[in-house]
Amino acid sequence: MSEDSGTSAHDDVPARRDVISSRTVVWYKTVYLVVFPVLGLLAIVAMLFASVAWPFLLGAAIGLPLVYGFCYFFLIDLADEVVDLGNRISVRRGGKVEEVLLDNVRSVQFDLSSNPSRVVLWLSRGSRRFGDRVTFIPRSDPSLNLLRENQVVADLKSRVARRAHPR
User: What is the value of pTM for the model shown?
Assistant: First the structure.
């Protein structure tokens, strides 16, 4: 990267270093995958010592693993941090970090049906560490217009589309 121009050597894309993922991912993973199960187990132990009727105890014993499995399924694949580096993105999940070129992103999908909303970057060539997709919670827009597309998602979609169909 040249210091004077602020562009990358690859294709004159302005050098960036913007975190485009939400910082709440680690909080979601900690609360839903650590704190809630511990509280659930404490509740079951308290029910055992309080001589609660067995149907309540059985419901809690069956419900806790189901809720944990549901949370695990929806949260474990989320990237902890996604950083926009211009012509590529840096993805961190746990102790794994990998850079993915935007040329390798086949499509960008924004899923509003989940809470929190998620972005899925479908990769044309699978990542060595993350497989065929990168999923993250985008940084939120400070807009009151709830029907407007997230600015991070709109920017990624337009950049991926430009790379897929150059003029």
Answer: 0.76
Cite the beta strand spans of the chain per DSSP E. Answer: 18-19, 81-84, 88-93, 96-101, 105-111, 118-127, 131-136
DSSP state of 109: E
Query: End-to-end alpha-carbon separation of the chain, Å?
Result: 24
Average pLDDT over residues 141-152: 71
- Residue 131, CA distances (Å) to 53, 77, 100, 121, 126 in order: 46, 10, 11, 11, 5
* Whole-number Cα distances in Å, 17 to 20, 71, 100, 141, 143: 9, 31, 14, 18, 22
Which helix H or strand E contains 130, and what residues bound it? none
